[in-house]
Amino acid sequence: MRLLIKILIVLLILAGASAAAYKPMAESWAKRNKILWRTATVEQGDIISVVNSTGTVKPKMRIVIGSFVSGPIKELFCEFNQEIKVGDLLATVDPTLYQANVSRDEASLASREADVFRVKAQLQQAINDEKRAIALRTEDETFIAQAEMDKFKFSRLSLDAQLKVAETAVAQAQATLENSQANLDYTKILSPVNGIVIERKIDPGQTVAAQFQTPELFIVAPDMRKEMHIQASVDEADIGWIKLAKQKKYPVTFTVDAYPEKLFNGTILEIRLAATTTQNVVTYPVVVSAENPDLDLLPFMTASLSFQVDHRDEVVKIPNAALRFYPNAKQVRPADIPILEGQDQANPNDEQDESQQSEKSLSAQERAQLRKDRHRRHVWVAEGNLLRAVEVTTGLSDSQFTEMVSGTLNKSDVLVTGVQATPVGPPR
Length: 428
What we know:
Elements: H1 2-32, E1 37-41, E2 43-59, E3 63-66, E4 71-76, E5 83-84, E6 89-93, H2 96-139, H3 146-186, E7 188-190, E8 195-200, E9 207-208, E10 216-221, E11 228-235, H4 239-248, E12 251-256, E13 259-271, E14 276-278, E15 281-290, E16 302-319, H5 320-324, H6 337-340, H7 364-373, E17 376-383, E18 386-397, E19 401-407, E20 414-419
Antiparallel strand pairs: 1-20, 2-11, 2-16, 3-10, 4-6, 4-9, 5-8, 6-7, 8-10, 11-15, 12-13, 12-16, 13-15, 14-15, 16-19, 17-18, 18-19
Helix pairs in contact: 2-3
């Protein structure tokens, strides 16, 4: 009997100790297995939306300077990267042959002019002879026969025609001389613009042949300090935003690899319609204008551009990480489980949820409406050990935040963005 009582007492003591230790053990277990959420805070401020692209820096213009005449290059007067002005002498083609042509044509012109002088003298003599014959025949018709009078007349007319031929020959010789003089002048290669020589394609002694096509001698970029162009390729999905940005004159910012920490500014100058297709991807060329006073932007540099396409001032901003977070059904309140299952707006009689339909099977109107509905999103707020869904309508986005168009969130609200990793190793 006493043994039974002792056993009962021991059991009661063990039961009491177990009951006393259960609560702290349960709390400790719950604490160790509690989900730790990663969170982000709702903010208020400006949102600037951008479209990113890459492009190539190019001069505003590229003037190709060639040679109109053929021959060996006698002298060069400019080098790479040299700044030149209108009329500066860049090079000369050997003028020996062209100078000889000018001398020949000058002599030919002088000969033609002398011929004109000779014919004029003969014509004047014929005119005088005819006048004297007319005067004698006026005194007495028997002094000079009519046949002799005809000889005087037609001799004058013949010399008059010869004078016109000689004067025409003078004009032809003058034109030939001007042509030869022009070719001689073309042996001096002059700059037609102010600019910088970005390429020189000849060396002294090299022969240029201009019979079939104009050889390229220099390439000059004018106004490089004033303006440079960046030719970017923009995806067709973003070109609508770019057109809107051009209309509103939003700025463009970009960097180049040569100066990774320097931010350059520009404006959209032109959206060209000459689209290109590469592996079924359609892109449009967009030209950006930028100032270049320090010549930091050099031809054919690669630029990384950001086109500002829209902005919002002082709006409630939802962290993008919160919009990307998608919990599982065990982590949310029972009332919000239909949201995860896509049934919060579904008709129970529908055989197929609209969200599961392929866009290709929808009409254009249905696709447009579906894309509008995608702005309706849910974010998650910790409520005890579970999560509560908050519906929001989103708007403009940048790399970190998205505008809240409508919803019940306020500045400083804490949203769940993920689950913290469980520490590895024994508890301490």
